[in-house]
Amino acid sequence: MPFMIERDLQDRLLRMAESFPAITLTGPRQSGKSTLCRMAFPKHPYVNLEEPDTRAEVMNNPRSFLATCPDGAVIDEVQRCPELPSYLQGLIDSDPRPGRWILTGSQNLSLLESISQSLAGRAAVMHLLPLSYNEMTRFPKHPVSIDETIFSGAYPRIHHRHFSPSEWLGSYVATYLERDVRTVTNVGDLIAFQKFVGLCAARIGQLVNFSSLAADCGVSQPTAKAWFSILETTFIAFRLPAYAGNERKRLVKMPKLHFYDTGLACWLLGIRSAGQLANHPLRGALFETWVVSEIVKNRVHRGEDRGVFHYRTRHGVEVDLVVVNGSLLQLLEAKAGTRTPSDVRRCLDRVKTDLETSGSIETLVVYGGDENLIESETAFVPWRDIDERAWTAS
Residue 283 and residue 276: Cα distance in Å, rounded? Predict the structure, then answer.
């Protein structure tokens, strides 16, 4: 088994395995699901359904296969054998010991449909996203500047094996298109689909506009929506919904587009070195996506997969991120510069005034500098310290 740093999700994974007979762990390909499960459950047999001979054996006689694992197993890429959860249901009902079956998969929708039909109430569903920056620093060699961090992305193998990010991500995209996309749905024109993914990368941090995406890609709007759903299903991109907490304000209701991994976005944008980021017109948008994805990872790995939004009125008043953190509302701006911008506090204060809440409101700026500062009740948080903040109530 390859070396792996400890993941933030591991403690929660072990706790859930003390209560549920089965755990389903989903996430993007190469986010470290298999390695995490093998580290957390070293006594469980490991079965990889990506291997053709293993998959054929399991599919031909699932009962015989399961009989060889009386105490359970780690079963990797379980969506490759969609009938298997139905056979697991009977085993779990007859022997509901917790923590026996650890199931992983890379394709969220197909896997969860199979689990929900067969293992509802029997399996806890968890998600493992790419590395947070805090996890990344556990490798002996890791990025030390914000541009290196954005450029290299957060897939574990890049940092463990010291691969060239551009070379590794190029192979990742090719594998993603040929295997994952074809498996999830019948995309007839992979070249057009890859162009669509690149167009999405060029719109990170912007409002999602399917009409514009469809026109630029030369496909219909329903096709653009369906293709974006594939990106969401395979954990490539996501929509950050608009906050709607104040009904008296005329708010923009469209979501914003973000990627889970900025390294992948950089590759799609043709950025082939960290040095190219310094003067790139999308550096600010890439930094914003990095900040948003860091907070999403932080929350998802602690069991919170909702409660993050953006805020924009039709008069142009906006903040990059609104985090509902228990009774606390956190308003956050992402600024890639190394200096604390004076105008950002006015925008945060205006949104704070707009919002009416029974709880308290905290205003923050995550920026490219190195000093922790508080100016007029707004906290300026250096990018390196983003994971030191409490982004969940738990």
Answer: 9
Is the four-CA dihedral 161, 231, 314, 358 of positive or negative sign?
negative
CA angle 253, 226, 121 (to 5 degrees): 85
Residue 18: Cβ within 10 Å count: 8
Q: Which residues pair with 105 in a beta bridge?
A: 26
For the chain, the C-alpha Rg in angstroms (whole number) is: 22
DSSP calls for 61-111: -HHHHHHT-TT-EEEESGGGSTTHHHHHHHHHHH---TT-EEEEES-HHHH
How would residue 117 be classed by pLDDT, with cut points 50, 70 and 90?
Answer: confident
User: What sign does the CA torsion over 28, 192, 182, 178 have?
Assistant: negative
| Per-residue pLDDT tens digits for 19-34 | 999 999 999 999 999 9
- Between helix 190-201 and helix 210-217 the angle, nearest 10°, is 130
Domains of the chain: 10-127 (3.40.50.300)
CA–CA separation, 164 and 272 (whole Å): 10
Burial of residue 210 (number of CB atoms within 10 Å: 0-12, 13-18, 19+) = middle
Contact assessment for residue 366 and residue 360, using Cβ atoms and an 8 Å cutoff: no
Tens digits of residue pLDDT in 325-339: 988 999 999 999 988
For helices 108-118 and 221-233, give the axis angle rounded to 10 degrees: 70
What is the distance between the alpha carbons of residues 295 and 226, in angstroms, rounded to a whole number? 27
Distance CA 378, CA 348 (A): 8
Residue type (1 letter), 264 = L
- What does DSSP say about strands 22-26 and 123-127: parallel, antiparallel, or unpaired? parallel
Q: What is the pLDDT of residues 224-266, one digit of tens each?
A: 999 999 899 889 999 999 998 765 667 889 999 999 999 999 9
8 Å CB contact between 264 and 180: no
Q: Which residue has the tokens 């105490």?
A: 71
- Maximum pairwise Cα distance, the chain: 67
SS3 22: strand
Exposure string of 75-102, with b = 16+ CB inside 10 Å and e = fewer, is bbbbbbbbebbebbbebbeeeeeebbbb
Q: What tokens does 134 get?
A: 């805090």
